[in-house]
Design goal:
homodimer, 191 residues, Tetracycline Repressor, domain 2, 9 helices
Amino acid sequence: MKLKMVEGTVRLLARRGLHATSFSEVLELTGAPRGSVYHHFPEGKEQLIREAVAFAGARSIQLLESKAGATALEITEFFLNLWRELLSRSNFQVGCAVLAVTVAADSPVLLSEAAAAFRAWRKRLAELLDAGGLGPTSAAGLAATLIAACEGAVVLSRAEQSMEPFDLVAVQMSEHVRTLLKARSETIPAE
Amino acid sequence: MKLKMVEGTVRLLARRGLHATSFSEVLELTGAPRGSVYHHFPEGKEQLIREAVAFAGARSIQLLESKAGATALEITEFFLNLWRELLSRSNFQVGCAVLAVTVAADSPVLLSEAAAAFRAWRKRLAELLDAGGLGPTSAAGLAATLIAACEGAVVLSRAEQSMEPFDLVAVQMSEHVRTLLKARSETIPAE
């Protein structure tokens, strides 16, 4: 039941933001009994949100793991597609739970949980992109840029209720990765 | 006084999000008399937020106008720097008011005001980048990407309380623009 509540909280955060995400909404969404609130989250709403951010962060990394060993371009397109599906499946109603917490966080504890999630994404995505042919420097830069560009593009597409901004960004990101890969293949002699 | 209240609302949205932005907070921040609320905003909070989003949108475009006639690379670096200064001046406390409204909007009216602001940014930035040497197709793509990447990078840097993610993104964006300009100069013969 605790996991279900945490998952429901991620969904509410992603759809409606931090302040609209309350225990009442989580109970209604998940059908959890009221007693489970203080049983599972004795520290209150902050604990619930903190655990939701950590859960959302870990789940995103888990999704990325399926692309371990792929090329940087494949990883990039997989990553772009994850976000695109989030928009299309929800009819532009849903964004990123961690972003929603960051822009409305009223406590350093929540901000620091969001920071940990973003840093872990950047780190793991950079490792995969590095192994996928980019080398460590470009990989670290591209990981930050892919995450930032997708986060921002999802917000533009949610506001505009249209895939157009997201798709413009996705094309540019794929082109950028191709350029980075080409530049690297030209500077490193084949063995 | 109305303008002062609208400006104050933009600041609150950018710093604390949609739900923490109330008339009481705006009155406290601006020193406006309580009577000015219903005098200037007879439709209530939604009107205040709507006008704040429109104001933030128009102000950003006005800032861009100072780079009319500049090269696409100069425009890109100017744009990146606007966001970087927002982060550094506020010690990572402040982000984008329009994004904050988008991810917590509970009314189609607010979402549509945010959409209008984003669309106007994309359009004007694309025109400037086109004139700055990119051509219309790359300019439309880059405008969306720059806005998305900056919006996302600002969120990462706010969460992490560090310029590191923003700076990684800024380097990649500048590199990407250089590549687009180079590709264009190679396909269009000089006259």
